[in-house]
Structure formats: C-alpha cells, structure tokens
Amino acid sequence: MDLKDMILVTENDRGTETNMLMTLDDYKSFIAVDDMSELAENLLQLGRTLGEADNFAEYYRAANVTVSARFCLDDIQLGHFLQGLYNDSKEFRFDKEASSSECVAKLKEIGMTDKGWVDDFNLHYESVDRSFERGQTFHNFNDHDYMVLEALSPRNLVVMDMKSGSLTIALGATEYKRYPKDEKPTKDNTTIGVSWEHGIYLGSTLSTTNFKAYKREYGTPEKIEDIYDYRAKLKQKFYFYQDMSKDDDVPKKLQNDFLHQMYEDFGTIEEDCFYDRLEDGKYDEGFKERQVKEEKCR
Predict the structure, then answer these.
(1) Are 222 and 236 spatial neighbours (Cβ–Cβ below 8 Å)?
(2) 116-121: long-range contacts at Cβ-Cβ below 8 A with a sequence spacing of 24 or more?
(3) pLDDT digit string, tens, across residues 23-54
(4) pTM: predicted TM-score of the whole model, two decimal places
(5) Within 13 Å of residue 283, how many CA atoms lie on the same side as its CB?
C-alpha cells in the first residue's frame, strides 16, 4: 500500500473526535451514502485533497456528526494527523479497530506508532550497494523524492527535493532496505530509501549555488586527461540543464533556474549555437585554467 492511497478520517460526534485510517473502499462503506450523486460529490471533494497540504473534505453524516477526510500527503502529515495536530480538541482518540487493516499494516511497515512517532528500534536497516549519478531520482525515508543534481563523490551529493525544489548537500548518502525487526524481508514489508549522515541546506536558488566550491570541499577530483574529455563533460552538463528545464516533474521555478544557469555557463540555450562555440574552442579557456591550477599544485 502506498501512503498516498491512505485516507485520514476524523469523525466528530457532538464534540468527541475519533481519528481513523482507511482505504477508499472502507471509507465509502463508513460514510454509507446511498445517493450516487451525493457520493460522487463527496468523492470529488476528497479527490481535490490530493497534493494539497492541509485541506480536508467534510461530510455531515447526521445533525451533530461530521466526517472530515483527506488523502495522505506523506509520512510527515500522517504523523501530524496521529498526533492530533488537525483535531479541534486535545481530547481525541485513534480507533485502531475501525481503521483498515492495510493502513494499520502500513504503520508497522514504516515503523510508526499510532501516536505518530517513528520507532527506529523496531526497524532493521540493511545497506545496499548503489552508485549515484547526475539526473537520477531516489526516494527518501521522509517519503520525499529527490533528484541528484551533482555527484560530488560516490556518497556526497547535491540533491533537489522534487516537492519543494529545495537543494541540499547530502553527505554520506546510502541506500537501505528497511523492514521490521524479527521479520524476513518481503515485497510488502520492505521499504527502499536513501538516507544521509549529514545534510547542508542550500535553499532553492540554483543560480546562487556554488557547485565548484562544494566540489572542492566534499568532492572527488574529476579525471580529465585532455581537451576532448573536458568538452565531453561540457556536453553532459549542457544536456543535463536542457533536460531539467523541460522536465515537468521539476518545479517551474527550478526549470527557469536551469535555463538561466545554462545561459550563464554557455552564453546560449540553443543547442546548435552551443555546438558551434564548443567546436570553435570558445569554452576551452576553462580547460587551460584547470591545467594551470594542476601545475601549481604539483
């Protein structure tokens, strides 16, 4: 079960609030709407909560009974829901018996208690051998997706949160299989994600991110033997910027930032113009500067 298929449900019966977790089928049975047009309207409102932060759809089951529901955004929101951050009163309870068994199993799978806290003590992490490259995406255990903007070294990465567009240097990035302790890993109980030992938050402005400085601080020196290797690296960079500026999964602001950075680095965003300049040696000055620095370091 994906977290985004889970529905966060609160029943307010004359001021008494009960929280539950349900599948869509169980939710439809719970609200018990016989009128098909009314049911369709309710599900339409529920569907509008997909991708939204805090909005809930409301349904009045009786004069004094209100049901609030929304699709789960991520594990952070799930934790907040179980902790009561969306309840009007501090006096609320979580009804495990009324919740869908699939949702209760999902809580166990991600190591979250019904109080909304992740208990790593009940989880086993098994590291996986994985290499990271520019342009790859991966899932993090905070239920966010990230894209690798720069692989500074095998385990030090500059990554972008695909939801917010924020940039982070992920130091010591490692992929893990995570599953409950004392259980054999299966397809259903195993979550694969990437964690890092330390993160440095960079904001969300690509043009002010000094990749060269971070490369010097946290990276592995690139092996560039000659001018042809150097030009090949420039081609990779140009096409990476181009791909990111057209990727609909990348926030619009970041798409524009990639175009801006492409122009800053290459003086053009047109592929034909870039190739003409590359072949004419207009970008070779960077290779010469690199050689001078290497000579000074010897």
Answers:
(1) no
(2) 116/78, 116/79, 116/80, 116/81, 116/82, 116/83, 117/79, 117/83, 118/75, 118/79, 121/181
(3) 999 998 888 887 888 888 888 888 888 877 77
(4) 0.57
(5) 24
